[in-house]
Automatic annotation (TrEMBL):
GO molecular function per UniProt: metalloendopeptidase activity
GO aspect biological process, one term: proteolysis
Compartments (UniProt record): Membrane
Descriptive protein name: Site-2 protease family protein
Amino acid sequence: MANLLGVALFALAILVSVSLHEAGHMVTAKAFGMKVTRYFVGFGPTLWSFKRGETEYGIKGIPLGGFCKIVGMTAQDDDVDPADEPRAMWRYPVWKRTIVMSAGSITHFALALIAIWIAAVTLGLPNQNFPTTDAQIRQEPAVIALSDCVIPDSAPRACAPGDAASPAAQAQLRDGDRITSVNGTPINNYGELLVALRGLKPGDTAKLDYVRDGQPGKTSTVLAQTQRPPLDDPKGAVAPVAALGVGLVPTTPTRLTYGPGEAFGATADFTRELAVGTVQALQRLPQKVPALWTAITGGERDVDTPISVVGASRLGGEAFANKAWLLFVTLFISLNFFIGVFNLLPLLPLDGGHIAIAWFERARSWLYAKIGRADPGRVDYLKLMPFTYVVILIGGVFTLLTITADVVNPITLFPR
């Protein structure tokens, strides 16, 4: 039930975002004096509407987005009343049309920024300095987490009968203890602990100094055997090595919270990382099509494959059910930022396509004036329809692939 509620809440958040996207177009168009005749949430049959001034507002039966009708978006619009010609959008200066067409994406960016700031003050943002690489992990203090056993091979798996008990547990060490020396050799970080253990053999006795709750302690234990590659070559051949039966507890916090003022700087840093990640994700889209097909046809689902609104809502439901509030908010932030960037791509029928054409017309008119030729006028959108249909077809196929993959082989972040 919690999962379904989370899915519904996340889907509602997406619907609100898209509705505000269209509201951004409407508000800026009205501010410049353009005529807006309709603003609806959803598509399909009208469930409810009312008219205020010259604009009809309402809700339609299929809650998949919304739309805003601005009179005369292109010079080829043939449904413009002669009385409305002076207020047709295409007659306005290019800078005003650019603001109106980009207002949808700006709304998504604003929603993302507000959500990031709120998360920074309340839930905290992911710590960019949290160790992720081997080199960073080895610089962490040697604060240990006990393993239940020593697995005698390099492939991770659950403990099985016959696996040796953890030597650290036998030595009465506890989760959170910090190892400070092994056989008299000082240990300053986790990397030095690994090096010290590799200098011993299975069956050797390790005398350990540690700190627990600020108090020093001593113990000793007989090291077990496991199989590991060399420390300096993680892909090298495995060999028998001594094992203490511990893992690392990173002391660097996974997330950081900020005061209201500090949160602005943190928001800027997080947004910068998000922008880079979004651009990289867009660049990888064509490469991910085969992976999506593999997922649909029964292969393993790559967690790095794109997801649809369906997949995002499912992940939002998982996050809600598991009380992973930061993940829920981060999904909302990432989706809004991605939609904002994607919608500015210079391709019709996206807003970015209309912006690109508007500035192309302006540049072409300026160039023709410079060389003394007559203004060629507006771009004929009808001639661009074949390219527009190709973009729609590709986008439709890609959307169908992602939705299908999210239904038959969804990405999951929490074990069931």
